[in-house]
Amino acid sequence: MTNHSKEPVFFFRELTEPGTVSIFATLKDAKDLVAKNKKPYLRLVLIDPLGKEILVQIWSDHEIYAPVDLFLRKNLLRKNGPIHLIDITFDGEFFSSSLKTRIDPIPTQHHFFEKYIQLNNYRLQKTIPSDPKVLGEIKKLINTKPLIECVLNQLKEEGITITEEIFWEVTKIIVDKTYTGTIHLIAGNPQLTITDEYTDYVLKQLETLMIALDRELVQERIAIIILLRRLQKDLISLYEFTTKS
User: Fold this and answer.
1) Residue 54: which of 43, 63, 64 has the closest Cα?
2) Strands 40-47 and 95-96, how do they pair?
3) Which residues are registered as beta bridge partners of 96?
4) Per-residue pLDDT of the chain (245 residues; tens, 9 = 90+)
5) 158 in Cβ contact with 210 (< 8 Å)
6) Which of 22, 25, 230, 233 allows an S-S link to 8, with CB 3.0 to 4.6 Å?
7) pTM of whole model > 0.90?
């Protein structure tokens, strides 16, 4: 069984295996409920930086339990504020309290809190933090230029005139598909490097679409826009490509 109880997780998709977990998230809601066996419990709705929600059951026979109003006051919690849950049991499907479960009474003092604020601000308002590390990673998008030029050159070889419209469309596609993502950069991941394998994949997808649309037709204005729109839809991102590889 996995154990994430030492360092809290931000992203719920990381929680895939049963174990004891610690979670640093936003408390979206809390409700008093009663189970079929008439046992009261508290249901917490948590949301992560990607907008994914999970439900956590706090059982009434555990010390941490209290009716919702008292639970929030006692633990200095508020809805849509941060919550740091420690030692939550995950059985592979459901999250629930155990005898060891506790709540960090001052999550704002945790070393994760600054990153949590940055992630939450981006989730809610798309606010890019003025963090030099994040800005430095975003700057690396300049390194998309060689791949952009490869795609443009492949189009030129087919006799297609590279207009301003085509230039901007290709640039947009490549930047969109190769950007690691601001949330991932805030979380501490680097801007991914475009590999030879990904370049080959992009050019192969382009070649296949040109064959599908007929090389002669591709040179028409409408056909080339259709080609690039399909390329936008049919390419997986560098992030997905790297993850799958």
Assistant:
1) 43
2) unpaired
3) 57, 89
4) 455 546 788 899 889 889 999 999 999 999 999 988 888 999 999 999 989 999 999 999 999 999 999 999 999 999 999 999 999 999 999 999 999 999 998 888 888 899 999 999 999 999 999 999 999 999 999 999 999 999 999 999 988 889 999 999 999 999 999 999 999 999 989 999 999 999 999 999 999 998 888 766 666 788 888 899 999 999 999 999 998 87
5) yes
6) 22
7) no
